[in-house]
Amino acid sequence: MRSFIAGTGSYAPEKVLTNRDLEKMVETSDDWIVERTGIRERHVASPDEATSDLAVKAAVRACEAASLDPKDVEAIVVGTITPDYPFPSAAAVLQGRLGNKKAFAFDVSAACAGSLYALSVADRYVASGAVKNALVVGADTLTRITDWTDRNTCILFGDGAGAMVLKPTDDPSRGILTTRLHSDGALVPILFQPGGGSREPISEKVLRDKSHFVKMNGREVFRVAVRALEESCREVLAAEKLTPGDVTYVIAHQANKRILDATLQRLELPASKCWMNLEKYGNTSAASVPMTLDEANRAGWFKPGDVILMMAIGGGMAWGASVVRW
After folding, report:
1. How many CA atoms are closer than 13 Å to the CA of 74, on its beta-carbon side?
2. Model pTM score
């Protein structure tokens, strides 16, 4: 038995922050941002919106698409690094917001790869028969941990949420086929949030040094990302005796257009096979993959039997890929 993606949903906050808006905040320009990242605008959560608020809306839409009452969900796995509270989990908050009493709920922390990690975990529960269905959510409000005076990072991030409902299937021609996850903790310093945890609890010094914001070595992230994504994509395809030429569509974490272009080029996959929404959402962290999947799905991209290659990489560093037959 396998699990398959029975429904998708997504949500982005109403407020839009354009590159022109950023020109008034830091020393940058629309041309500079577009050339280096491919991003033109991003959505920003309102002051009264938290990560769970975004997650609820995406989750409800996914459940509707899967013809599943949210109260009947049996497992909730949320990928996020910006939960509403240090504890409990965003998944527990989401469960309460959905009026659900059946599910067990927990978070997975893998930064931008969070939804792929969450998908892998939920897939095992459904495919094993431990649960009849699962709700997978990727949701982040990265703008809450962004330094708006750092032009190297503030241009990148946006807020959003995406969701997927998994159900079991006995059909050997469809479902989540192979997923492979990887981590390299030696690379923590190239992309992380140093302050605000147990090593550097919130203090006047942390606030003064702005260490509670995202810190990134962009050049190193690019170098690691392209290599890691190519290798993990080839790994999952090989496990299914497939080649890049067998891929119908690519659903990739929308981090940076240069990373995506370089990865697709290495895999010899045309950009036309990869759904791109980076220019209007920016990097939404764990929300990116399910938001992208939902947009492509609702646009009518996928047909039964299509081979979909999913990939993501985030701080940690954590990355992975998955092959799905629609």
Report:
1. 12
2. 0.97
Residue with tokens 């891929």: 247
User: pLDDT tens across 180-209, in order?
Assistant: 999 999 999 999 999 999 999 999 999 999
Burial group, residue 35, by CB count within 10 angstroms (0-12, 13-18, 19+): exposed
* Measured distance CA(97)–CA(138) in Å, rounded: 16
56: Cβ contacts below 8 Å, ≥ 6 apart? 94, 97, 98
The set of catalytic residues is 112, 253, 283
305 SS3 class = coil
**64-91-65 Cα angle (round to 5):** 10
Q: Which helix (H) or strand (E) holds 231?
A: helix 218-239
What CA–CA distance (Å, rounded) separates 138 from 272? 25
pLDDT tens-digit profile of 27-58? Answer: 999 999 999 999 999 999 999 999 999 999 99
- In the chain, the domains with their CATH numbers are 2-169 (3.40.47.10), 175-325 (3.40.47.10)
Asked if 171 and 323 count as a contact pair (C-beta separation under 8 A), the reply is no
**HSE-up (13 A, CA, CB side) for residue 221:** 24
pLDDT per residue as tens digits for the range 244-281: 999 999 999 999 999 999 999 999 999 999 999 999 99
Contact 68, 165 (CB under 8 A): yes
